[in-house]
Design a protein that fits this description.
Blueprint (H helix, E strand, L loop, with lengths): L4 H37 L7 H22 L7 H4 L4 H35 L13 H4 L1 H24 L19
Length: about 180
């Protein structure tokens, strides 16, 4: 199936969110490793690793959520979904997508208001580096906007399955690793 420019743009933004999450993870691991080395080898602390790691965790969580949804790794109870008849599963998927879009849109609006309020009041963190709080908070509405796009694409796919214009979802692949007991 060919993808239109809107779908390509949405998928590009979802991928951008993934890349931001990956960079945040890399930076967080690097910062924590540097702090551990400084504490154990040089006997001093960077003093900012806790604060900055918290900001990076927010970036990773919010910006990576859209990709997690599109890759099937987020917000699904698969053993229940795949036990339902195909048509019922499609109806449940549409209902879920609509409900999740409403919740995500509300969250996006409220987080946008939070960031705006924080920016207007020039609030800074009560920490050593006094980070302007709107900067790390900005990842939350950006991530919600990306997640909303992902839900819109999911809704389109769910509606296509409901009306028989797309192949039915198959059961998820088994993991490539085995759990040792």
């Amino acid at each position: 199936r060919s993808r239109g420019p809107i779908e390509r743009a949405a998928e590009g933004l979802i991928t951008l969110g993934l890349r931001l999450a990956e960079v945040a993870i890399f930076c967080m691991v690097s910062l924590i490793a540097a702090d551990v080395i400084c504490r154990n080898v040089f006997n001093f602390s960077l003093l900012i690793s806790d604060e900055v790691s918290g900001y990076l965790l927010v970036i990773m969580t919010f910006c990576g959520a859209g990709y997690s949804l599109r890759s099937g790794a987020l917000l699904r109870i698969e053993f229940l979904l795949f036990s339902l008849p195909r048509r019922v599963r499609a109806v449940v998927d549409v209902f879920y997508d609509l409900l999740a879009m409403a919740v995500t849109a509300t969250l996006l609006y409220e987080l946008g208001r939070l960031v705006w309020s924080t920016w207007e009041r020039h609030m800074v963190a009560a920490t050593l580096i006094q980070t302007p709080l709107w900067i790390p908070q900005l990842a939350m509405p950006i991530g919600c906007a990306i997640l909303l796009l992902a839900f819109m694409l999911d809704l389109r796919d769910s509606l296509a399955r409901l009306f028989g214009r797309a192949p039915a979802e198959t059961a998820p692949p088994k993991p490539e690793f085995e759990v040792l007991s």
